Amino acid sequence: MSRGDLSEAEWRILKGLLPIDAANRGRGRLPEENRAIINGILWRLRCGTPWRDVPPKYGNWNTIYRRFRRWSDAGVWEAVSVTLAEVMADSGHYSIDSTTVRDHKSI
């Protein structure tokens, strides 16, 4: 596991949020390999590089890109963000700083 890859606890939460479309799946990576796909997506978003520069250990860059686009179009990322926000709120884990929330002084 590389720095920045999903931990077991993080993967357990995310795994249930990803669509499994076995009937319309066709060719390509199996749904069990979604963890590597997610790690590739996170690597690309963290580094800001072109999709073609995603390391091969995460899989084919084109597979990772297509899965990202398909999940984006299906609204998967919105569901993931809402669920993660709920999990963080329930567990008491918050991460707020001045770059996220601007302070306004009342006069």
From TrEMBL:
Domain Insertion element IS402-like, chain residue ranges per copy: 6-80
Domain of life: Bacteria
One Pfam entry name: DUF4096
InterPro entries in the cross-refs: IS402-like_dom, Transposase_6_like
NCBIfam families: transpos_IS5_3
The protein, known as: Transposase
High-level lineage: Bacteria, Pseudomonadati, Pseudomonadota, Alphaproteobacteria, Sphingomonadales
